[in-house]
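Notes taken during the Thursday session

The instructor put the following on the board and asked us to keep it in front of us for the whole hour. The protein is Molybdopterin molybdenumtransferase. We were told not to look anything up and to reason only from what is written here. First, the residues (455 in total):
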Amino acid sequence: MVSVSDAQAIILNLVQPLNHQRDTEVVDLLVADSRILAVPVTSPLDFPHWDNSAMDGYAVRYEDVQHSSENPAVLEIVEDIPAGYQPKSTIQPGQAARIFTGAVIPAGADTVVMQEKTRREENRVFILDAPKPQEFVRHKASFYQAGTQLLPAGIKLNAPEIAVLAAAQCPQLNVYRRPRVAIFSTGDELMTVDQPLQPGQIVDSNQYALAALVRQSGAEPILLGIVKDDPIVLEKVIAYAVAIADIVLSSGGVSVGDYDYVDKILESLKAKIHIRSVEMRPGKPLTVATFPTPHTPSSPPLPHLPHSPLLRLRSVQVPTTSASLSTSPHYFGFAQYKSPLYFGLPGNPAAVLVTFWRFVLPAIKKLSGITEGWEPVFLKVRSHHELRSNGKRETYLWGKLHLIDGVYEFHQADGSQSSGNLINLAQTNALAVLPVGKTLIYPQEEVQVLQLSNS
Ligand SMILES: Nc1nc2c(c(=O)[nH]1)N[C@H]1C(S)=C(S)[C@@H](COP(=O)(O)OP(=O)(O)OC[C@H]3O[C@@H](n4cnc5c(N)ncnc54)[C@H](O)[C@@H]3O)O[C@H]1N2
Ligand code: MOO
Ligand SMILES: [Mg+2]
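Then, after some discussion, the predicted structure tokens were revealed:
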């Protein structure tokens, strides 16, 4: 059994980020939000493109107005310069131009006096207060110099970056493709959401949870459905999943029960199992495995995969009839060029969510091409309730962060913290973490929480 921090280090070390040449696609800027930039962006434009005014007012020569606080200067207005127009005149001593925010500073002028510090009389303006030299001039290239790096590769594109790229006239962008994450559930007891339940049966909720989590992470979920506890079928599905995805997530079948086949099948498929169990609760029986890296071809064609919306849970047909079905890189008509990372998540619904948030999400982030910020974010907050653990494993308790007078407080979810209890996970936006050996946190005591990005 490995510690949680060792498990995180092992997993992140196994992740190979997408390739910045091979694993990219071009997208329109309007739909590029939340994507990861694959190449650095440089602009031939300076920002600002030219000296311009930060205020509505008058463009003046500083030397004409420097004593205006004692003795208001009176200047002749030679031109009106709205934003969007090129000035025609050069400001001479004793002259000014009426100017508006964002408009080009005319030649000869070096300072803008805001309108409120002036008095207008026909085509003359009285400067009532001396400005500072160059005041309210936004100088060409003072925000960004043409030819230098505007945005680095490996950043997530959010509204500020999208605005920068629009201003730099980049209507299309090279971004990393979405990581492909194959998901399936194992268990004879599992039914789809629309099937009637017989005694002993439950709905496969894990697949829905994982599909949502994967999609929220920016990756593409590929839903392979429910797989019976049948080692032959399970082996075929695992081999298929490994051949089509960057990451495979199965849930269930990783403990010590007679019908828990996942680890044995991984071994028979020559996978290297790096983790079998983690010192955490929930989430102890977690399997992490990789497969031998196949031969790297020069330019592998990507497989054509149907986009798998949640509603088509049963729509991906896994070929299970061919005797030759294997992890062979060429089996599906395309060449696999990197080893996918296999997570055998424990079947209990709370364990699935917690292990996803704690281990899978950082792995998807690293894989996605983003260059930093993969690790989970922990905050120190105050606990509202008493929190308890048996101290034997690092314990994750689910609940909600509330902002009380500007300070975050963790409220543990009411009801059972059993990893089989899915119901009170609704509205969870944080997990309190009690390290090994810590059995009690008093009300109002500080506790570490993992803040979840779905809040
Ligand atoms: N003798 C031991 N038994 C168990 C141990 C142990 O150490 N020794 N560990 C327990 C812990 S902790 C966990 S977590 C579970 C992990 O079990 P598996 O990964 O083998 O999962 P299953 O046996 O298939 O199912 C467990 C549980 O979860 C329900 N389940 C499974 N899949 C789904 C799904 N897709 N949607 C909703 N619910 C699902 C399943 O019905 C079972 O109730 O093992 C403990 N046992
Ligand atoms: O590790 Mo299990 O997830 O507690 O039930
Ligand atoms: Mg089991």
